[in-house]
């Protein structure tokens, strides 16, 4: 990735929490968001060795997120990935598909263990540092879990309570991972989906649906669903309405 991409911290400091509380007190509940973006999404992916084929696929179809909302608002997306021995990085916020695609195509997957907790904590930390610029959703794409399920559930629940929806899309059929991923999405007020079979078209539909939800709410999501006419999006909307 580019030189301006930075390592993701694995924990939240006491000063981070204190700063968050101080800023939160100064923000009126109805205050408008700073900046022109109508929505902010963190797009996080497992970039360990087994994920290379699907990483390449995701790099080419992520434009669906921008295309879906091009007529109703502006979307900011940050790419986060982990790979290798403790490597976890976050890009700057992107506002167009080509910029995000360029960042993704410069990444090569490497062998290593999952660092999902680090990704979740990164999103929590960002929200604490800038409560006036909320992150509307975290989208995580991965195939397995090698971490403590209770910790992941707690972190996902923390995001859900603070207004960041957690969406988890799973490659493959690791049943143990699926159970953890479903819990994460449920506690994070989001949704879970598996990317079997026609993974490219399914992921494209899901990304566009979430972008529509973030920028335009449930009405925009319903409109997007009607235009796409796929069962995949209905599975997502049914979970959101529970």
UniProtKB/TrEMBL annotation:
InterPro entries reported for this sequence: vWFA_dom_sf
Region (Disordered), start-end ranges: 1-35
Protein name stated in the entry: VWFA domain-containing protein
The organism of origin for this protein: Thalassospira profundimaris
């Amino acid at each position: 990735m580019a030189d301006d991409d930075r390592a993701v911290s694995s924990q939240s400091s006491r000063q981070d929490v204190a700063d968050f509380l101080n800023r939160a007190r100064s923000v009126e509940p109805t205050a408008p968001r700073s900046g022109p973006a109508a929505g902010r999404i963190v797009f996080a992916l497992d970039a360990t060795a087994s994920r290379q084929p699907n990483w390449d696929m995701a790099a080419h179809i992520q434009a669906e997120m921008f295309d879906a909302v091009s007529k109703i608002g502006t979307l900011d997306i940050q790419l986060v990935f982990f790979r290798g021995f403790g490597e976890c990085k976050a890009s700057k916020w992107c506002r167009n598909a080509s910029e995000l695609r360029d960042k993704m195509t410069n990444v090569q997957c490497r062998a290593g263990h999952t660092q999902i907790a680090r990704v979740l904590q990164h999103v929590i930390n960002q929200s604490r540092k800038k409560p006036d610029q909320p992150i509307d959703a975290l989208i995580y794409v991965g195939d397995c879990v090698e971490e403590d399920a209770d910790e992941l559930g707690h972190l996902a629940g923390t995001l859900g309570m603070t207004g960041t929806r957690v969406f988890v899309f799973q490659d493959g059929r690791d049943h143990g991972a699926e159970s953890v991923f479903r819990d994460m999405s449920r506690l994070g007020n989001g949704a879970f989906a598996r990317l079997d079979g026609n993974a490219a078209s399914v992921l494209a539909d899901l990304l566009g649906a979430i972008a529509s939800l973030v920028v335009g709410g449930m009405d925009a999501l319903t409109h997007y669903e009607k235009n796409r006419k796929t069962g995949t999006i209905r599975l997502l909307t049914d979970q959101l309405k529970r």
